[in-house]
Fold this protein.
Amino acid sequence: MVAGPPLFQIRDLHVSADGHQILRGLDLTLAEGEIHALMGPNGSGKSTLANALLGSPAYQVTQGQILYRGEDITAWPTDVRAKAGVFLAFQYPEEIAGVPVVQFLRQALSARKGIDLSILELRLSIMEWMERLGMDRSFGDRYLNEGFSGGEKKRNEVLQMAILEPDVAILDETDSGLDIDALRTVAEGVHQVRNARPALGVLLITHYQRILDYLTPDRVHVMVAGRVVDSGGPELAARLEREGYDAWR
């Protein structure tokens, strides 16, 4: 059998913002069902990459390609990428006053599936996932991220990932600002989603090795100054924890 194209591929990606070049020829390939961890110091371009992968207009791709199942999506708008199955969990999720979580998910899933879903159709699925993620059932009627703790915001991102059923999930520093209990809960939520969708590919962007104690990556990539400068297995993350980034600068 002839193998198809990789699930997600970044080729020689150069990205600038406000006239400054941030990504300088980044390459990365993610296959179905894999978890890849992308690690790097502050200012290495990790969040720039996350925003560029979702097509944020604040970031300009000046060279290279983003491929999804072999198709060049570099010029696709954000909403088209999301409908196709590319998901981004934000480092700092936005608050949206007046929009309940369940209503937000109905609109997003309706757009993703191309059909108009009712609240009733969706609520049972949301309630089931909230239970699996250890979330109170009243959560669905709260306004999106308004008054949420850091852990609640991150669990809400995992809930969105579960309901929207993407093929690729980019988790931008999902561990940021979480205590150890919240971190464990969020990591377990990601496991639950992957158990339900084994082909889901995950690109986990992080500063720290600690989340990798709960989400074991297939590959670890070191990013410095806008490029991937080294790749390896989970042992690479352990080396980073011991030695820091100086060896790659």
